Amino acid sequence: MASIPELDHLKIPLEDIKLATNNFSDSNFIGQGGFGRVYKGQLPLSAFAASTTTSRSTNPTARPATIAVKRLDVKGGQGQHEFLMEIAMLSSYKHDNLVSLVGFSEEGDEKIIVYEHEVRGSLDKYLATDLTWVQRLQICLGAARGLNYLHDGVGEGHRVLHRDIKSSNILLDENWEAKVSDFGLSKIGPTNQEFTFLVTTAAGTFGYVDPIYITTGVLTKESDVYSFGVVLFEVLCGRLAMIGKYEDERRFLAHLARLRYEEGKLDEIIIPSIRKQIKPNSLQTFSRIAYQCLKLERKQRPTMATIMEQLQISLEFQISCRRITRIGLWGSSTGGSPWSFQLDGSHKLRKITLDHEDWIYSIGFTTEDLSGLFNSSQQHGGGGGRSGGQISEINFDADEDITGILGTVGVTTGRYRGYIVISSLCFRTNKQSFGPFGKETGDRFSVPWDVGSFAGFYGRAGFYLDGLGCYLKATM
Ligand SMILES: Nc1ncnc2c1ncn2[C@@H]1O[C@H](COP(=O)(O)OP(=O)(O)OP(=O)(O)O)[C@@H](O)[C@H]1O
Ligand SMILES: [Mg+2]
């Protein structure tokens, strides 16, 4: 039996997995896919400590992890290749938007992959729910980042083609952060050739597969882009890629969406709950890029980097209000969890609370409404005073407006080194200047506000669970 010795440290005894899943009991069963059955379980602490990944090891007090156990349906050696492939893949490529591998087991006839359990399950189950447009956009953006990493971020001269992008392979954690899963069918392709392609037997899932791949058997990164486009329309329309009971043009969403887009009647197929909230420029940006993903000519399909950029713009259009102009991105746009703060049109920003030391740990906002009531947002980021940082409050007068934000983007040092964060911030108003808060290191940025007034922030925040190295990765 083929094996990969470098993966030995990820091996988990079958006995521990049986204990964790009540011996694969029906009450632990959560789903069935092409690979086999999936079970939820609680891994005993001892087993978890032995197979832990580095990010986990910074948190020795972690409770036993909740895991998702994928039990491979094997007959003879079938699936062996995909099995080792997925483990090798997951153990070497790490990104906040890829599902985390806990370990694997290979004893007797059993082949099992153990993942971190993503509490909300897969995106397909939420397509027809009342998830807001902003939540939907953030999920798409996360998934796009994960896929972009596979295509362009895994290292010089390599790229990973996913080959089975669909909503059931996009998992969601408790913060609705997207985690791309299932690279079992993927292959590593060279990027240093003008035309990267792999010839394989057709794989993937009906309704999502690039039509060119079906006819030629040639797979490129544009095939993933096509499938991702189908997912974007699933999210917009609140339905699956294929609905078997329809005998007409509604059967395949890719076909239907392309038709309606070209007729200028996309509105007709958008899920009603979001049709009311979606802003026209947000919809226009989103649907244009989704439509381009479905182009039959591969050369006309966008890259994942472009898709990410356009989804970001679509999100900005949605969360900004009439009074502001679009601003740029500073700091890190990956890692941590997304957050946003929006100033209601009738509210006035009265206070910003910053927790900072060598970089900005967290940021919070206090607003005043028309009746004079003050409302404070949560502190976005980590710490909140417990991180040993300094708390600074910036109080604005009722007639004071932000006219500019300046700051620096740096890289963390010390124990938690290597993270791109907002290292300092400085606020200018029509009356005075506040700051700098934090430590001015790294690249400077400035956001002039003379063209509009402040309406909100959005960003990403991450922190270590042991409460020490809290940091804010903000995109402002
Ligand atoms: N890590 C996980 N955390 C939470 N739920 C999961 C996890 N992995 C899988 N699931 C759930 O189990 C179901 C089955 O997953 P599985 O990947 O086996 O099938 P699939 O995605 O529907 O099809 P395919 O086999 O083509 O990937 C998923 O739809 C998902 O809801
Ligand atoms: Mg899957």
UniProtKB/TrEMBL annotation:
It holds the Pfam family Jacalin. Keywords: Lectin, Transferase. CDD domains: Jacalin (cd09612). This is Putative jacalin-like lectin domain-containing protein. GO terms for molecular function: ATP binding; carbohydrate binding; protein kinase activity; transmembrane receptor protein tyrosine kinase activity. Residues 324-474 form the Jacalin-type lectin domain. Belongs to the jacalin lectin family. One of its GO terms (cellular component) is plasma membrane. The keyword Transferase applies. Residues 24-315 form the Protein kinase domain. PANTHER family: OS07G0166700 PROTEIN, PROTEIN KINASE DOMAIN-CONTAINING PROTEIN.
